[in-house]
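Folds abound. Consider this:
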Amino acid sequence: MKSGEWDPQNPALITNRVKKFLEQIDPNDLSENDRSWYFEVLWFWYHHATSCTSWITNRPLAQAYATKALALQEKCQPEGFGQPNRITRLLWLIVHDRVDEAREWMAQKPVGADEVEHKNGLELIEEYEQRKAK
């Protein structure tokens, strides 16, 4: 993601072709397990599309991706457990300029939370603030 090689707007990339194909499927036609994976793959795409879209020069697109990722995240696991990744909500807060809430979100580190995810979240906030200051 950080290399900038993946572009969510490039229709030739396999990741974007898969996403386009999946979005043509009605998830109600899938088994519960397949539906869970369907939402997981789409969540993953939108989550990373948010990260790869410039939060400064293309804020509306980053906001749209973040909103879609957040909505899909809740549908990833059967029985409404959702995908546990905390960065998706953090990205949504950041691209909506809600940095104070983003800091609060990362301060609410649950017991046993993934240290790498927490560290990445704090780095994303710092990166956002550095970009904003330019």
Remarks:
- The CA atoms of residues 75 and 90 lie 18 Å apart.
